[in-house]
């Protein structure tokens, strides 16, 4: 693999074995992600597109090891397409979040060595991802375009908001409710409306679902059976999901006893 001229040797070493294909010449970021240039005045957008060039990289399925040490001016990685998971391992338990198109990642520290509460962060690519590398060269180009910087800041705030909702749904009870809310949160980004309901084309294992909602795999399997009995969520033969009905709101509790009355089952603990 040809070494991009902006990467230091130690950064290249951290990328070995991840099967990443780099485009050292870069690409125009505002053509790859037009939303970021929405606030740039119309008469300046051509100039902005030409100025804001970022190197891109593709990461195949499997474990991803971000560079351990990079320039502090590095803004992170912008996901252009694909799906990856961030696992946070704390006190022997793994909590997972999903990231995809439009998300701004800051995986510049993958361990909790500097924290009083020791933890570890691991990244796993579930579907091949293409990333824009917002390195120190790109950061210098951004100085002339505060509108685009504001767009990136909004992306970070959007990710923080989703993380807050994700933390809140892990407090819901029972597991059926957690899963239902999770599916609708994912459908907001990756769902597609069909005549039968909202199709969610994300393929994840029961183990990953458990890490997403904070429970054991066995509880997820049981709860998915209850959801199927209720008619609210079906797993399709192609391992995607079909959501029926309306998404939960912030004030209406879900009464699973009523939903499951015909099956004679009780919700998973």
Descriptive notes:
The protein has 269 residues and is α+β, with helices and mostly antiparallel strands. The chain folds into 2 domains: 9-168, Sandwich (Jelly Rolls), CATH 2.60.120; 172-259, Arc Repressor Mutant, subunit A (Orthogonal Bundle). Helix content is 34%, strand content 27%. It contains 9 helices and 11 strands. The protein has helices spanning 9-15, 29-32, 45-51, 136-142, 146-169, 175-190, 206-213, 217-230, 256-259, and strands spanning 21-28, 53-59, 62-64, 76-90, 93-100, 104-105, 120-134, 191-194, 197-200, 233-235, 241-243. The strands form 2 sheets. Strands 1, 2, 3, 4, 5, 6 and 7 form a 7-stranded antiparallel sheet that branches. Strands 8-9-11-10 form a 4-stranded antiparallel sheet. A hairpin with a 2-residue loop joins strand 4 and strand 5 (93-100). It starts with 8 loop residues before the first helix and ends in a 10-residue tail after the last helix.
Summed up, what is this model?
With 269 residues, the chain is of the alpha+beta class. 34% of the residues lie in helices and 27% in strands. A hairpin with a 2-residue loop joins strand 8 and strand 9 (197-200).
Number of helices: 9
**Percentage of residues assigned to helices:** 25-40%
How many domains? The number is 2
CATH topology description of the largest domain = Jelly Rolls
What are the low-pLDDT stretches, counting only 5+ consecutive residues below 50?
1-23, 259-269
CATH-scheme architecture of the largest domain? Sandwich
Order of helices and strands: HEHHEEEEEEHHHEEHHEEH
**Structural class assignment:** alpha+beta
Number of strands: 11
**Name of the CATH superfamily of the largest domain:** Jelly Rolls
How much strand content do the residues show?
A: 25-35%
Q: Describe the global form.
A: globular
CATH hierarchy, class of the largest domain: Mainly Beta
What separation lies between the terminal Cα atoms?
Answer: 50 Å
Global Rg: 21 Å
How is the main sheet built? 7 strands, antiparallel
Mean pLDDT over the residues: 83
């Amino acid at each position: 693999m040809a070494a991009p001229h902006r990467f230091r040797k130690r950064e290249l070493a951290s990328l070995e074995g991840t099967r990443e294909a780099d485009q050292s010449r870069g690409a125009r970021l505002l053509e790859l992600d037009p939303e970021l240039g929405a606030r740039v005045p119309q008469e300046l957008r051509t100039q902005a597109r030409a100025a804001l060039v970022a190197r891109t990289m593709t990461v195949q399925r499997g474990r991803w090891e971000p560079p351990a040490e990079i320039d502090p001016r590095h803004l992170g990685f912008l996901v252009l397409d694909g799906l990856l998971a961030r696992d946070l391992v704390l006190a022997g338990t793994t909590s997972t979040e999903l990231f995809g198109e439009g998300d701004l990642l800051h995986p510049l520290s993958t361990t909790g060595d500097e924290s009083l509460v020791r933890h570890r962060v691991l990244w796993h690519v579930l579907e091949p991802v293409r990333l824009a590398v917002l390195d120190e060269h790109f950061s210098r180009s951004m100085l002339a375009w505060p509108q685009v910087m504001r767009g990136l800041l909004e992306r970070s705030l959007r990710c923080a908001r989703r993380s807050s909702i994700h933390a809140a749904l892990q407090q819901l009870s029972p597991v059926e409710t957690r899963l239902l809310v999770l599916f609708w949160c994912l459908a907001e980004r990756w769902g597609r409306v069909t005549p039968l309901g909202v199709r969610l084309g994300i393929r994840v294992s029961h183990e990953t679902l458990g890490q997403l909602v904070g429970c054991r795999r066995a509880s997820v399997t049981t709860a998915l059976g209850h959801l199927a009995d209720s008619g609210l969520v079906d797993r399709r033969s192609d391992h995607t999901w079909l959501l029926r009905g309306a998404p939960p709101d912030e004030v209406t509790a879900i009464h699973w006893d009523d939903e499951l009355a015909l099956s004679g089952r009780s919700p998973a603990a």
